[in-house]
What does this fold into?
Amino acid sequence: MSPKVPYILIPALVFFFTIGSVAWAAPGGTAIVRVTTNPAYPDARLGFTGTPSGDVQLDQSGVATIRSEVDSGSHESILARIDQNLLDAGYRLTQVSCDDPASTRRSSGDLESSKARFEVEDDETVTCTFALQPSFACTCPKQGRWNVVNNTGSMACTGVVSMTTPLAASRSSGTLSVNDSCDTILAEGMSDDEADLEMRLQSDCSWLGTVGGEQDGIPMVITFRWNLENEERILGDLESTVSQQGMTCRMSRTFSLDFAN
It folds into this structure.
């Protein structure tokens, strides 16, 4: 039979164990490593040591994160491994930054050592971002009005009937708007029969965009590719392949854009 605890001691014991539990609790917060690539480079893997640590794989937007629940205090996370294909594409670590400038103890990034130092306070979440981009600078086109020269193209069809139809050369003009990070261009009014076109920067410094719609009731997606000779001249091509009722038709043409003002 267990010895009985005098009733008068029970409140004191409850108070003692409550205080003891508080004393032994491990207060802390959350440390998050975030990796970004610009232009977005999906599927590559990177490895981190320290806290947080582990391997991450970039998603389709070129972003990945690691989250760790940590004690309050200092923690370091180091970028230790980068996929060779990402390095071969020219990507390098260009910035390490943290998002707690208003905290009593500020976290910081060290680009030279590829390291983030987390200063985590109780109930605080700190995110440190490792930003990678190509070591070579991609040319950014000027904003404003551009003249378009569409070269003669063709629509070649095979299947039930084989035929080739020329696409006549033409000229037009429109405007280009470039976002602040120069990874997205909006082309407006380039022709009367095409919707506005959004072009996105690729890892090789080319630009890619698509326009979808219907022509004579047939669904069609046109893919545009641009390469910049300089900030005032763009060379491009477009293509579209459509299969319908036993026929496959491929449309293609090249074109150029020159800055007007």
